[in-house]
Amino acid sequence: xxxxxxxxxxxxxxxxxxxxxxxxxxxxxxxxxxxxxxxxxxxxxxxxxxxxxxxxxxxxxxxxxxxxxxxxxxxxxxxxxxxxxxxxxxxxxxxxxxxxxxxxxxxxxxxxxxxxxxxxxxxxxxxxxxxxxxxxxxxxxxxxxxxxxxxxxxxxxxxxxxxxxxxxxxxxxxxxxxxxxxxxxxxxxxxxxxxxxxxxxxxxxxxxxxxxxxxxxxxxxxxxxxxxxxxxxxxxxxxxxxxxxxxx
Length: 248
Ligand SMILES: [Zn+2]
Description:
- It is built from five helices and nine strands, in the order H-E-E-H-E-E-E-H-E-E-H-E-E-H.
- By secondary structure, the chain is an alpha+beta fold.
- It has a domain of about 170 residues: Muramoyl-pentapeptide Carboxypeptidase, domain 2.
- The strands form two sheets. A six-stranded mixed β-sheet has the order 2-8-9-7-6-4. It has a three-stranded mixed β-sheet with strand order 1-3-5, with no helix packed on it.
- Helix 3 crosses helix 4.
- The N and C termini lie far apart (about 110 Å).
- The protein binds zinc ion.
- Zinc ion binds next to strand 7.
């Protein structure tokens, strides 16, 4: 016996047919990315903080990730005795003013010249950074021409002592004018640190017996004036002062 569809079955079949025909008409474009709808926020943004971050990190900070300086196979410069100096030409009598040219100005923070200093972040160099915030960053700030001799010296130190000693920077740029006696008149203080062209160096761990050799290595690395100041090795460069480039 063949059963015939009743009326409800006919209606169901018609609905199914209609649904199938509608489905067949739908075209889904899978290649198009979904469109995200951005709804404008209706809330008010929070008020801008009134605290102004200072100092702004304006000097360019250079992260040293690799060093490949060409190292002279041997630095044959004799150890620099206590309070003795040596210049790029090998002279023990030439002054720093002659070898590295005189200081031009005191570079103040947040000035045009200050913004042209560079900060060096090299994990293989120890930076003392004993000054209080915000001046603690000044030990990593220096004239850009300082970077090459410093990188060469760092490599020379590592080669000299097979990694047993690291190069440490105890002072570089100094806006606090702390390289003169505290009782001196601030406006007449004189040091190439004040424009980022001088740097004070030690070994790490500290070993003053090594500073004569450290100073010799600094001369080999390309610093224009090096002096063994007993508690550290002071080195400076002959480079265009940032003061003159900014008209300060
Ligand atoms: Zn110094």
